[in-house]
TrEMBL record, chains A, B, C, D, E, F:
<dbReference type="InterPro" id="IPR012340">
    <property type="entry name" value="NA-bd_OB-fold"/>
</dbReference>
<dbReference type="InterPro" id="IPR006674">
    <property type="entry name" value="HD_domain"/>
</dbReference>
<keyword id="KW-0378">Hydrolase</keyword>
<dbReference type="GO" id="GO:0031125">
    <property type="term" value="P:rRNA 3'-end processing"/>
</dbReference>
<dbReference type="GO" id="GO:0016787">
    <property type="term" value="F:hydrolase activity"/>
</dbReference>
<dbReference type="Pfam" id="PF01966">
    <property type="entry name" value="HD"/>
</dbReference>
<feature type="domain" description="HD">
    <location>
        <begin position="162"/>
        <end position="283"/>
    </location>
</feature>
<dbReference type="InterPro" id="IPR050798">
    <property type="entry name" value="YhaM_exoribonuc/phosphodiest"/>
</dbReference>
<protein>
    <submittedName>
        <fullName>HD domain-containing protein</fullName>
    </submittedName>
</protein>
């Protein structure tokens, strides 16, 4: 079975893949015929595919997010690789394949990521801060097992959000040791809460975001998280005007740094400044690491990366 | 008694004024002497003033926000009018003057403004929306009697915030009649809630903002109002995920229109688009009206107005 | 006959439509065949269509802006609805259909819109201002009966420009009552003149702009209107340096508010500030109203609207 | 007599100078005393000065734009050179000094500049274009003898505007020879007309702009020139819609290149593109030349120049 | 033989052309067939073409940058002209055609351009400056015979870079005569060096840039040229800290004027300001001249030109 | 002896301080008297001071960067604390005070910082990279003992530049462990080289930058470092086109990330992306840490920090 990121033009391809997207279209021949316009994916990447002779039965059999076995050939169309599918059938139980094997995932098991996050909460010495963080995490814990951190920009895969949190917690720990004046309770809390409402902002399955939710568009994850902190404080009986509540809301509200990037206020505490830069460092480095990992080793340049000033990354030969 | 906005250079000035600001400074003569650097104000405007021979007693007698009787003369210093105070004494009860006579105010009595706002809430047909609006207004009702709408940009005087709301409600009523597809419940609610947290964002006395509160800086009035709506829904037992709560939060969060102007989301409902433009229309027209009213009639041009692309307004002679 | 904005995929479609655009293209089959690439429209909206077997006779029979009767079926192509035409014939007199029934129009009859505009001119108390406004309106009066206000952004339909003026006059009347310091002569004149040269800036038929004129590109409607005021004053024998002429030119020149939006000067009279905000309020609200009206009721979201920060509008369910 | 741009700290200064600005102010000693805050200028530059003991007679004797003989000393105040005046008297006829000797001027006599401009008009082969240019030049010919091209940015001295035109005409001639596809009639006309309304936009005396006129602020020199071309065509009986009129208006309207720099349309003819770049080249080079000429030769760096990205110019030693 | 910029729809086309680009693609018929997607060019312009029946032999015969004789017909596809090739064969020696006849070229022979550039270097009076310029020119002299100045924006053809230099040298000579304070050694050197590293920044053949080099992307032509000046000074034994070296590096580094346009420092010497404006004037005028020359004379408007604010240029009829 | 950052209004002050700036000015009394306008500093901060009766002897005795013993009193002038000096004398050897005790310094000894940097170079496994880094460090090693990293923005004190490097090396080590795909040789080299030319860009003494050098303004530290790498490769006999040289130049050139921040190219290698974000994280956190450390503990807010969106930092009370 060929991994998608290893395909070259004219390669035969046989194996199991996920129908990430599937649309029924018509050729402009006379008479027009139905065909499937498909986005195939596996754990290594994704590729456009066509299945030209979709029968009436086929149209009842294949749907997006289904696992299939295909046979086909890769060729170049408009300067990009594409697969022409010659045979296709649904995967069956007997095939012993599982959906989650066909999507990109964080390199650490979700259960271990959650464990690390819970450990970080447990290590917060201030009880109120820890309780508010727990309240918010509980709202999305099930989704934290699989949600990506974003639709496209970074950590856009299975459990990408939890992975982003865990990596940021590592940086946060380092930074608190390097600069002891930082309040590690606030910094840990900020790292865990800053994107905590993303699972409600986006609709995702298997680490793939299909769209933003209505609430995601009208309120946004930043204000949602701020509202959740308010809710937590009310439910837990804490003072809404305390510096703890204020400090947590400020961390969440300011973490995008600028108004044009979505933050209604700018960082004005030491931990808020740290949070923004840790978030930025981790997201950008992950973009680089993922782009290099999913680009065939024979390519010198990755594709353009929107989050990095739309630049490609080069592999220096040293 | 001369109104401040009627003074010309070399005018004698005798009468009661408010010490809006007062600072003790030292001349750079040898030896240095203490003097008062003062901002005098009355209901028509404000002017810088100096009192050169501040005695030890004077320093115990005069404080910011105190009413005084002064005698002095206006003269030009660095191209701006200034008052040199020759005599000064505190106002006494016998003088029969009242602080509120010496600050600029909305042209309608606060009690009548509040009455109009309460009437608008009563006319909201949806019970839940009305109850949430009432909950938020109750949090600041006392302050709504006197708070300005902003530190400097517009409606920066006694009861300016309530006046801004009432004028916007008038425009909103007109617009709902002109365009019946608009939901008038949401529009009224949005108008009343959009700046409702400003009294907690700013510290003001007699319509004069001295500074922003810590919460105002770290959270901001937009996110505060969003949190209040969450709190209202929890306290009143409403569904936090209903379209009513969502719609109200969206109105508040989006009313500055753009991220760089402080809104974390952009208007995406008909009423949110209307709210932003009504807010903008009323604020800008009030800037124009106030600038013309406080500029001496003999002047062709008002001062530059920061909120109007930093342009001055000209009086055409027609 | 199915209205275009009511079509769903797989719907049969039979009825009269306007060929808003028609281009002859060739398939890339061997040998290539001619087909028609068409934009169909009716009063409710527009939709892309293909007619695959265009004969030599067909190519002599069908032209853009012709009325036709078609039979076909709607289907989805690249995520957008499209019509495959199976039969097509020109409409004949016997069909009793009229071009103007097949384009979107303002909801008020053009003759009534013109009447309202003339009434507004008649209500201008200053004779010179009224005469200058009349002079400019006379230049385009015939076109005012049907011109849209823009190519795409807002009021882009039959008599859209006159409708925009009339709605703005209503807001202007309200505002002059709310804020009596405004000069209603100038405000009315500004509303009528601000886009008065648009019919010379754009080439339009039946409310549909096909392109900008050479003069529209090289001079622009703002400077054209300013030149017309100069011309009016010369022809009518008025003083070119009077505050009336100056005030009118300023209204026209400044109504886009900022240089990057096309205004060489920024608003510096009370009426110019009002004009810009009335224009903006009316245009934006119309975008919202039209987007909601032309989006199928079953859709929660309208398409993205460029003039509203490229956001879609959501229908809250309350 | 010491030239202002040759002064060093502690230099004695005796001679005739112009009171470019004079304001009566008061010291903050007790009692305060009147003094003159003065801007002295001569043909080489300008410098701030103080005259500390202004008597009642002095206040009746000295006014802005008057010629005086002074005695004083230069010293450094807040890192800038300043003159302390010890003696001052008005210049008399007997002194044989003339105002125009005390202001900076273009290096060519105004009469010769005008002559060159008239020659350029005479060389325009198209009669209509030449006549329109003449009509506009006639409106300001007297002012063209002495007006600066701007308040501060470039050519801000006696006859600076005419000098700017003449230099641009030289570049234009060169460019038409280098690139014969350019229409030299249009280019000459554009060069002469592009800033032709500046004398009506600004109020200036002896090459010094004191302020912008009301018309300058409300209409601006670009739209004024466009209106003048309309007026010229009407008065001369030319077709307002001809490509000649259109081409001239386009040149004037587009010469600032971008909306944010004041042009309502962008250059869209070959000559309009050329005009903008010739204007820019000449203005920038003159800023450099003037900054170097008015900075003492002992200084390596000129002051910061706003029009050159706020950079200073360095004298390389080669 | 028809020149490409003279083609109209339905024209027969027979003659020799260059295969500027050639890609093998597949039709989406069943079974799919191979075809060539081609960009044809000659000295007058370029045009898209299709060759629908590519045999196995064809695929071994035709490659990008090969000369061919074709027969075909022009037709409109998606509003743009395209050629359907019916016959194609490689050009042979017997045909007597040469590659260089089929690409656009500067209007002056490369050898003459180089001669002019060498003459300019010889006229630099300062020996060290002349030697450094020579050193850098020697690095690319062979490429200077044919390299374009840019991938698309301006002078994007055979010997375009040398042509740009020569034209700028002419403007520089004129400007040094008009403003004698300019140092003509520095200005000539700056003109020759400013884009001298472009041949190493881009990969080009026959005046056509196919891509940027790795070094071009990671270092850029501006820093490369600065490094070359360092290298020249070391190799020639000059002082790295002299004002000559400094002045040359400054010219190169600042010639894009602003950081966002790629210059790490802004112009701060007279010659650096001049260099930027001469570069800009020449590049923009060439864009205009080339756009007009390659647009069929029957067209009023050229295509949109990205480097001119994305505006098209209009041919006024005078 | 009172530390400057502990002063309050009306405090007596006696002790040794550094005259960071000293200017002789004149009072505007009659007759004017000479006084010293002084910036005092010690290791904790700096404060403005005046010495009103500067005698002729004083003017020969006191100069900038001299150590003095003063007696005086702190008072508030224009809302800022200022010192009025009553007695002043130069420090003598007998006083046993040393200049370096009176300037702010990095919290680690310079010799230890240099030691750490040399250790990092020694740990670079690639010999060529290590040698190039050494070559560049050797150019400024003496200055690295005391130079600040910037004039004002961050690390603006004694040995601030070396301290910045060392802290970044710590973050770099952490990041290479967290993300092993990073090339630690390049990252270490990039950290050490990115600001290596700053000591030649700025003129500084005791950690205080007085101005930028001519080379600093005309070339800038980024291009200087790039040139040094070229020089190193030539002197050491390495291939100028190797990926090692290219990679190092790219790191230096791109580390400001955007053109408008001074980088002619954007980061396009993994290590270049990392370098920019490590630089940013360390600089911003240091701004926060230093602002909190130098603001009296009784103050809730630090002053506004230009490098942090001009926001102040708040001390939460938790």
């Amino acid at each position: 079975m060929t991994l998608i990121n290893q395909l070259s033009s004219q390669d035969e391809i046989v194996g199991f893949y996920l129908l990430k997207e599937l649309e029924i279209k018509q050729t402009n021949s006379t008479p027009p015929k139905d065909y499937f316009d498909i986005m195939l994916c596996d754990s290594s990447g994704q590729i456009s595919a066509k299945y030209w002779d979709a029968s009436a039965t086929d149209k009842e059999t294949f749907f997006p997010m289904g696992l299939v076995k295909i046979q086909g050939v890769a060729h170049t169309y408009r300067e990009r690789l594409q697969v022409k599918i010659t045979k296709i059938r649904p995967a069956t139980e007997a095939d012993g394949v599982s959906l989650t094997d066909f999507v990109r995932s964080a390199p650490i098991r979700p259960i271990d990521l959650i464990h690390t996050i819970q450990g970080a909460i447990a290590s917060i010495s201030d009880e109120e801060i820890a309780a508010i963080v727990s309240f918010c995490v509980d709202k999305v814990e099930e989704k934290l097992m699989h949600y990506p951190a974003a639709k496209m920009h970074h950590h856009d895969y299975f459990a990408g959000l939890a992975y982003h949190m865990v990596r940021m917690l590592e940086i946060g720990d380092f930074l608190c040791k390097q600069r002891p004046f930082l309040n590690s309770d606030f910094l840990k809390a900020g790292i865990i809460l800053h994107d905590i409402a993303k699972p409600e902002e986006m609709v995702a399955q298997l680490g793939i975001v299909s769209e933003y939710s209505v609430k995601g568009k009208l309120v946004g994850h930043i204000s949602m998280a701020s509202n959740w902190i308010t809710e937590a404080a009310i439910r837990l009986g804490y003072d809404l005007d305390s510096h703890k509540v204020l400090g947590l809301q400020h961390l969440v509200l300011s973490h995008h740094n600028l108004g044009e990037w979505g933050s209604p206020v700018q960082p004005q505490t030491a931990e808020a400044v740290a949070l923004h830069h840790i978030d930025s460092l981790d997201a950008k480095m992950q973009m680089v690491e993922d782009a290099l990992a999913t680009t065939p080793v024979t390519e010198e340049w990755t594709p353009f990366i929107r989050g990095l000033e739309n630049k490609a990354i080069y592999r220096l030969k040293v």
